[in-house]
Sequence to fold (369 residues):
Amino acid sequence: MRAELNAHVGIVGGGPAGAAAALALAREGLRVLLLDAGKPNDFKLGEGLPPGARPLLRDLGVLEHVLNGGHLPSYANVSAWGSPNLHSTDFIFHLSGHGWHLDRARFDASLRQAATSAGAEVRQEAAVTRVEQEADGWHLSIESGGNVSEVRCDWLIDATGRRAAIARRYGAIRQHADALVAFFARFRPGARAAERDGRTLVEATPDGWWYTARIPSGERVVAYLTDADLADRARLLSPEGFMSALGETVHLQTVLSEHGYALHDRPRGADAGSARLDRFVGSGWLAAGDAALSFDPLSSQGITTALYTGMKAGQALAACLAGDRDALEGYAGHLATVHEAYWKNRSSSYGDERRWVNRPFWARRHRPE
Ligand SMILES: Cc1cc2nc3c(=O)[nH]c(=O)nc-3n(C[C@H](O)[C@H](O)[C@H](O)COP(=O)(O)OP(=O)(O)OC[C@H]3O[C@@H](n4cnc5c(N)ncnc54)[C@H](O)[C@@H]3O)c2cc1C
Fold:
């Protein structure tokens, strides 16, 4: 089949990383095609955007979108971590002000819309089902609404999230540091007085940790993080089993029952481990966001890092196409530095919880690297 369109850069994946890359490239006047398989209103996990994201959103020119997007302000994290008592970290002392609890579907859509405004062509519900590298560049098959179309582009950015579908297909190896998994569900409030708590609540337990946060729909996301081999999957994916595991918490249980929250959908599971690619750049491709570096949700840095690495990937590729021979190597080196800083923070955060040093979940995280 003849390729119907030529683009300088094809970006596969329209999450924060792909959208930020599209924005950066389109602003440099390059012809960009952003392809995303997701349905625009599908629920998406990952809602906490910390205050530190604000300067980056401003650099990307999307801060107003976020401020006016109906997301909830978040003023603090409160955690029972290292002690059974709750400890609050207030954002009021943060230079950038408050953070947000996002409506992720709306947030991601607003980023894609900003990319469109900057001149990128964005296709939603468009799954890239085949990728081939040939002498004249990349050929992609795209399935959308039951139709298959073909496009050609010179460069590809892999922003497919944790699947890292393109980088792995073209030889990169995803190096996993752990096997953290999340079991999560949404809870709806009861008829009692509406809750106004804008904090993320984190609670460590003997075999992992829990968190809950309110999202703009009025629901709460509740998630349990543990290692895959320690999890009773069948139990945690059943409503009864998830509720009984939640019953072993102290603070989460209290918050949920105080406001009459009830489980609203079936619990689901997701990969939540720390991982990185062994290389971030290959012949004709770059990886950005979770595809390149996946962080533990404890860090609350996944979205910010996806935006940042997406923007940097776009800038590096634009510089490379303008003749800067070191730009891509510089990008790869920069991601290695970001990963190193993340790893130090992860070790320090898990090091703060020492109540269950002999339990496998914590012992693994206290081991010197
Ligand atoms: C339990 C949990 C809680 C989290 N909580 C937070 C949090 O509070 N704060 C935070 O900052 N981060 C959080 N994260 C992490 C955060 O959600 C991710 O880091 C972020 O979404 C990464 O963005 P991305 O653009 O790299 O990938 P994604 O957001 O995963 O986007 C990838 C996109 O690629 C598309 N795609 C994949 N394959 C194809 C294909 N073949 N063709 C077309 N499209 C394709 C997908 O449809 C998807 O839209 C959490 C993660 C987990 C697991």
About this structure: The chain has a mean pLDDT of 94. The domain at 6-47+103-176+275-348 is CATH 3.50.50.60 (FAD/NAD(P)-binding domain). Residues 206 and 359 are 7 Å apart (CA to CA). The pocket of flavin-adenine dinucleotide is lined by residues 12-18, 35-38, 45-48, 127-128, 159-161, 163, 165, 182, 184, 223, 270, 272, 289-291, 297, 300-304, 306 (CB under 6 Å).
